Amino acid sequence: MNQGIIKEFRDFLLRGDLISLAVAFIMAGAFGAVVAVFTDGIIMAFIAAIFGKPSFDSIGLDIGDGRLAIGSFLTAVVNLVIVAAAVFFFIVKPVQAIKDRQKKEGEVVPDADDIALLKEIRDLLKNRP
Questions:
Q1: Could you tell me the pTM of the whole model?
Q2: Residue 90 burial (CB count, 10 A)
Q3: What residues pair up with 58 in beta bridges, in sequence order?
Q4: Contact at 8 Å (CB) between 64 and 20?
């Protein structure tokens, strides 16, 4: 193989975006496993305590020879809402708070003496011939 192609391929693999994407993918898998255990072990246990069954999967509607799996759909919706809430409250909001804090720390607020000095300079510049 041509050495230029190998170098380009290596640069492609080591590019920051690709590595960040790989890390995000791995973390999403691990996070999904945690949320799945939380959903199955805690949320569905509460559902079992209330409704007598650990999931909605048994809810369905028989139509002719087929069956509408309404319960499976409801279970998937509950899982989606739990994952979305976990991502929002444990990732999006904390990152947003950190960014807001960094933005506020980076702002320079002039004090009254600086403002007065700037006004004086402005007035002097206006009166220049």
A1: 0.50
A2: 13
A3: none
A4: no
